[in-house]
Write a structure and sequence with these properties.
The protein is of the alpha/beta class. It has a single domain, classed as NAD(P)-binding Rossmann-like Domain (Rossmann fold, 3-Layer(aba) Sandwich), CATH 3.40.50. Helix content is 41%, strand content 16%. It has seven helices and eight strands; from the N terminus they run βαβαβαβααβαβαββ. Helix 1 crosses helix 7 and helix 4 runs parallel beside helix 6. The protein is globular.
């Protein structure tokens, strides 16, 4: 049998890059996507230096045209999709967003955050789920955050928090549309030491990657429609 096809959005750095590496090490054919084809290729070259074959592709999840073009390429070149990791995400409140409250962030910033973090995944799911349903197999991971959990809701980064809360809702909505052996879950990787997480984050890259890869490689008896951290279910 040919290798399973895994697509990772925002795969050129941080958690996305770590997930691409981990899946490639497990024998998946990984398509590493980024908004810049050059950055995607540079990331693939880093993995090639470790004797890992990863394919580069351009994809901007905030653009419907880009998403459509990507799936046209995917169908033509591979004909199927086994794993989708919706990792692409960003914080648009700035580096000092932790101290910025709901009275300080313009609605336009929230809209931009939703377009990337929530609607980006929505666009991908609208194309990926029918492909997986048709094949009767698939694993989808929405990379979320405890900051989006209602039971942990605090202050600061309101756009990011709300976009991840909505992403969790997408997990529940699309779980109702799955057929056969297709599964979807939200995963909180924790506060990870990446470019976005910063050097003071409490978790290593490997610790953050673990839970995402766990959900991406679930056995047929694994869960679907839940919210997890390190493979353990957490509250919404």
């Amino acid at each position: 049998m040919s290798k399973k096809i895994a697509v990772v959005t925002g795969g050129n750095r941080g958690l996305g890059f770590g997930v691409c590496q981990a899946l490639a090490e497990r024998g998946y054919h990984v398509i590493l996507t980024a908004r810049s084809l050059q950055k995607a290729k540079q990331a693939c070259e880093r993995l090639a230096a470790a004797s890992l074959e990863v394919e580069a592709a351009v994809l901007d999840v905030a653009s419907e045209q880009s998403v459509q073009q990507f799936f046209s390429f995917l169908r033509a070149s591979h004909g199927r999709l086994d794993v989708l990791v919706n990792n692409a995400g960003a914080i648009f409140e700035g580096k000092d967003g932790a101290g910025v409250g709901v009275f300080d962030v313009p609605a336009e910033v929230l809209a931009r955050t939703f377009d990337n973090n929530t609607l980006g995944a929505y666009r991908m799911l609208q194309h990926a789920v029918p492909m997986m349903n048709e094949a009767g197999f698939g694993r989808i991971v929405n990379v979320s955050s405890g900051m989006g959990g209602l039971h942990e809701m605090g202050t600061g980064h309101p756009g990011y928090r709300l976009s991840k809360t909505a992403l969790n809702a997408l997990t529940c909505l699309f779980d109702n549309e799955l057929k056969g052996g297709v599964k979807i879950n939200s995963v909180c990787p924790g506060w990870v030491r990446t470019e976005m997480g910063g050097e003071h984050a409490t978790r290593s890259l490997d610790e953050g990657v673990f839970g995402i890869v766990w959900a991406a490689t679930l056995d047929e008896d694994g869960p679907s429609g839940g919210f997890f951290r390190d493979g353990e279910k957490i509250d919404w």
